[in-house]
Specification:
Blueprint (H helix, E strand, L loop, with lengths): L5 H13 L1 H36 L6 E6 L17 E2 H10 L3 E9 L7 E3 L2 E3 L2 E5 L3 H4 L2 E6 L4 H5 L4 E5 H7 L10 E4 L2 E11 L12 E5 H7 L5 E2 L1 E6 L5 H15 L10 E5 H44 L1 H9 L4 H40 L14 H18 L1 H9 L2 H6 L2
Parallel strand pairs: 6-11, 8-10
Antiparallel strand pairs: 1-13, 1-14, 2-12, 3-6, 3-13, 4-5, 4-9, 7-10, 8-11, 9-10
């Protein structure tokens, strides 16, 4: 007795046809279970892709440092003192902290009304002074030219890199802006590049709406002395930013006469913690999706098992006659298990196909209306997840036939023939 026995499939077809309404209702339960599992898996993946795409291109092993009022008195200084980071702090950190890969002090110039001017047009955009390393911390897309380089910082050049939105407002589409002069807060700078941040993470405003100039030029042109507002640091590969974060804070306290245990005075924003939080969130979403999806699928499988039990009960006399005529138990087992597996597989594969079709349709609609700020991108089910769902479906179908098969084998031929 094999799965390729024509008589076997004929008997199965007759059974399913005879109970077609019952079979359809039961099959729908399996269909809906696998359909919802696929939809939830695809939606969870789209949410994950959307969030990660907005932070893609930003160095995850990064921390940003900024100052706050002191929380403790120290060496004659009172509690609540305001303080600033300085250029000397950056040099000490470069020299002492060995695991720093990129470092960039940052100065912000605000977004005053009409602070950026080109010819007879004026608009309001963010202004910042940065080091060349900032392009490695927040990766840039280059439409024209380059980013700030070491020579610009060393010679305090009056050059700038404008964001794509700034370019679109001041220049015609396709026009080369390199070498043009724009006025930023009353001072003229030569445009050397047009960029846009790859990541959606915003530090002091979107890169597309920002004018970046050399850090040293910013300090001198706008009378900032040797102070800085922010300090961005990325750790070397394989080194946790938490370790570097503590070393940097210790140096900042020592350099600026702050109590060694004053955590309030030295504030920081650890990007790595945010990414870890996202990863934990995605793990929880995936676990919840599989839990709910498998639960829904099992509800359908229980329905299949129940229908097979009813089928066996209705066919008790038939099974008894067949066994009395010499039918082997294995033939009855194969028939019932195959009926269960066939019903489950057909309904499940239809549900899987329908789910993939819906996700594909949603993806097409989203692609037709792109939005860089969207947190729901490319809904799809991964190949591995589809295989896992299919295997779970087949195993569930086999499990659904276990109880009916056991009941069928418990029927004695003579007792079955006597049943009315």
């Amino acid at each position: 007795m094999t799965l390729f026995d024509i008589d076997l499939w004929h008997e199965i077809w007759i059974t399913i046809t005879r109970n077609k309404i019952r079979s359809l209702l039961t099959g729908f339960g399996v269909f809906w279970g696998i359909f919802m599992l696929v939809i939830m898996l695809g939606s969870g993946k789209a949410l994950e892709t959307g969030i990660l795409s907005n932070v893609e291109g930003f160095a995850t092993n990064t921390a940003f440092f900024f100052t706050d009022r002191t929380g403790k008195p120290f060496k004659g200084f009172r509690k609540g003192r305001s303080w600033d980071m300085h250029n000397s702090d950056v040099e000490v950190i470069r020299r002492v902290v060995k695991n720093v890969r990129y470092i960039s002090p940052i100065l912000f110039g605000g977004r005053a009304e009409g602070n950026v001017v080109y010819n007879d047009r004026a608009s309001s955009y963010s202004v910042r002074g940065v080091y060349p390393d900032y392009a490695n911390i927040e990766q840039q897309r280059y439409a024209f030219g380059r980013f700030i380089n070491e020579v610009d910082v060393l010679h305090k050049r009056k050059v700038c890199v404008i964001g794509t939105r700034v370019y679109e407002e001041f220049f015609k589409k396709g026009e080369n802006p390199l070498g043009q002069q724009i006025r930023v807060r009353g001072i003229y700078f030569q445009v050397v590049g047009v960029t846009d941040g790859v990541s959606g993470v915003q530090i002091g405003g979107r890169s597309s709406e920002t004018v970046s100039i050399p850090f040293s030029t910013f300090q001198q042109a706008y009378n900032q002395g040797d102070r800085l507002h922010f300090l961005a640091i990325t750790a070397k590969d394989g080194v946790g930013i938490e370790q570097v974060e503590q070393e940097v804070k210790a140096i900042l306290r020592a350099q600026n006469k702050i109590a060694p245990d004053d955590e309030q005075a030295t504030s920081s924003f650890n990007v790595s913690r945010v990414f870890n939080m996202f990863n934990a969130l995605f793990l929880g979403v995936r676990a919840l999706v599989w839990f709910v999806g498998i639960g829904t699928l099992l509800a359908g499988i229980v329905g299949v098992s129940n229908i097979m039990v009813v089928t066996v009960r209705e066919r008790t006399r038939e099974i008894g006659v067949r066994r009395a005529l010499g039918a082997k138990p294995s033939k009855i087992v194969v028939q019932i298990m195959t009926e269960s597996l066939l019903l489950t597989s057909l309904a499940g594969l239809l549900g899987l196909s329908a789910g993939v079709g819906v996700l594909s349709a949603v993806d097409t609609l989203l692609s037709a209306n792109p939005d860089p700020d969207r947190f729901f991108v490319n809904p799809r089910i991964e190949f591995g997840s589809a295989i896992t769902a299919s295997v779970a479906l087949l195993l569930s179908g086999m499990m659904a036939g276990v109880i009916p098969t056991w009941r069928a084998l418990k029927v004695k031929a003579i007792d079955a023939i006597r049943e009315e």
